[in-house]
Amino acid sequence: MDVINAILGIPLGYIFYFCYELLPNYGLAILLFALITKALLFPLSVVAQKNAITMVRIRPALEDIKQRFAGNNTLVLAEQKALYKREHYSLLKGMLPLLIQIPLILGLICVVYFPLQHLLHLDTITIRLLISATAEQLGIPVAQLGTGAQLAVMELVKHDPAALAGLTGMDDALAQIKAVNLDFFGVDMAMVPGFALPLTLLFPLLSGGSALLLSALQNKYYILQRGAGFWGKWGTALFLTVFSLYFAYVLPCGVGLYWIAGNFLSIAIMGLCNVIYPPHKYLDLSAIKTKPKLSSEEKKQKRQRNKAERARQRVDLKRFYKEPDKQLVFYSEGSGYYKYFKRIIEWLLEHSDLVIHYVSSDLNDQVFSIQLNEQKRQRFQRYFVRPSSLISFMMKMDADMVVMTMPDLETFHIKRSLVRKDIEYVYIDHGMTSFHLCLREHALDAFDTVFTFGPNQDREVRRSEELYQLPAKTLVNTGYPLLDDLIDSVCDLPLDHVNEPPVVLVAPSWQTDNLMDLCLPQTVAPLLAAGFNVVVRPHPEYVKRFKERILQHLTDFKKEFASGQLTLEQDFSSNKTVYESDIVLTDWSSIAQEFSYATRKPSIFVHTPIKVMNPAWESYGLEPLDISLRKQIGRDVALEELPTLGGIALEMLALRDEYRERIARVMEENLYHVGSSAEQAGAYIIASLKEHEARRQEEKAQLQDHLFAPSLEDLEKELGPHA
Q: What are residue 634's phi and psi, to 5 degrees?
């Protein structure tokens, strides 16, 4: 208390002393003190109001970030921080008025508990003598008076003026103490409320009541409370009410009076801030909605799903860790990712005796339902690990090689193994994209090996190593296994085949400002009007995170849905709709390359804001294939051209022979090993794992030689000292 008094009590004591000099009544001085402190803090309240409006404005973007990067808390925080910086939002600005109240209250408590120092400005020696004399009069040790020692002096002098009259040289001090007016409407402001003095109980009751009123008005008029759920509003109100009541009950009535005044002044300040920065001027208040709650049935289903996942994970983890000498592990984020590994795994099962350990974070992953003969089933072990358990699982990884499509190893939450330092981490991209544009900066730094699909990816990796002075990775020119699957799927279709009516597959990416969110109705409508059948196939991650938005974007097309002219596809286990379409329309998704390369048919690219994951991509000095290819395998369409999209698509269909020849040339220039990518990847995996095994055997032999090598002393005993 002495430290708090020295830091906070002394400066605030001078303000309170000024208030008491101006209004020589303890209660009135407290009210004036509350008014002055609120006035001093008013600019901060205005800043907090502006900050709160910013928060409500960016709240949808925050929800988008949480959904878009769900399961990766580190990345969520990084994206939130970047958003706050762009929008000039500060957590501190919103909390400052509340945070500053804490030292104000602590300072006021010191002022109330040390009136001889702060109100009367008596010197330290005089205060000590008065406290000592008071303790003697009360027949208790000085220490027993505690922090209320100065109040005890005041109370003794007020109720028994003659008690300390005999103290030498204290006449002026005692006269000053007697002159202090602690009364406020019949209540001594230095008293702690109690049932012995019923009138004092008004202060905790009014403190709790004013806090409840403030909370109720905030729920209605404070912009940050708009959209909060029931417990978000009234749970906070209940806490503040109970806290205020208890706070004013255990401290002197003067503190309770300040708290009551502060609550009423906060109501006035909230109204004034709403006048200075009216929320309706900056926000569409009608668009602010309370976050929907899960129904009891949805909550039940969620509990059952979590229970099933935990049970399955326990069994699978036990089985995974029980397997000795694991060589090869594939990790899949979800069911839609198996297709990127499928061809490689099938080749390995046919051409090696490796046991493949496939780990998925999707309980409904299609990989769990794949039927194999007994021999292959034993060699293709499948496991489920929940996303929430992935961090510890990866840190305990024990295998020679881990193959994954998830970038950002070591950058965010997924780290290299702590158990083994010699694991070879292999990255396979799940799209024919440019690494330096579509992956985050340093996304591949921690990988040992990268399977590349074309020369552009080789150049990008080497340029990254040069820029950041990284050790050289092993680059394996594999080509793109999924493309080979697609090519096999379309080989029986005539090259000049066109559906009747023709089909456009709309398959956007899922980054911010993607086609789904930006202009889906404006994209679909002209295609339907031109007579196309349209299939909308959102990105798997978009479906996972923003499923409720999809039908909202298509509410104006009920008639077309009913007739079958418009369909929505959310099953990504098959690519049938991709290769059977006549044209693919996207924004920045690599599905266009997959489609055009496999079918030799053109793609349409809507020019939404570019998908940039790495702001430093231009420093590489390499033009991304994602940009240069748009005009080589199709057509780039500006947003203002969308009304003419139907005519553009019909024109491209008429030029399909010309596009077929052009796309064949583009493939030859930009892709490795079309048709044999799985063989290239599989052969490397087998050779690399053999090297891992050879190194392990060599290390084991060296260890045995070291353990069993005879010492010099043993040799001398065996051969004699002169040997």
A: 180, -140
User: Rounded to whole angstroms, how far apart are CA atoms 696 and 391?
Assistant: 27
- The residues with which 587 forms a beta bridge, in sequence order, are none
Angstrom distance (rounded) from CA 447 to CA 404: 10
Distance CA 484, CA 506 (A): 22
**pTM surpassing 0.85?**
no
Q: How far is CA 698 from CA 57, 402, 411, in A?
A: 62, 22, 33
Phi-psi region of 600 (alpha: psi -120 to 50; beta: other; left: phi over 0): left
pLDDT tens-digit map of 65-113: 887 776 666 677 788 888 888 888 888 887 887 788 788 888 878 888 8
8 Å CB contact between 110 and 8: yes
Given a contact cutoff of 8 angstroms between Cβ atoms, the answer to whether 283 and 55 are in contact is no
Cα–Cα nearest to 430, from 513, 329, 337: 337
Contact present, 191 and 253 (Cβ < 8 Å): yes
- 319-335 pLDDT, tens digit per residue, is 999 999 999 999 998 88
- Whole-angstrom Cα distance, residue 553 to residue 557? 9
Q: Using H for helix, E for strand and C for coil, what is the string for 26-77? A: HHHHHHHHHHHHHHHHHHHHHHHHHHHHHHHHHHHHHHHHHHHCCCCHHHHH
What domains are defined for the chain?
2-119+180-282 (no CATH), 298-480 (3.40.50), 483-670 (3.40.50.2000)
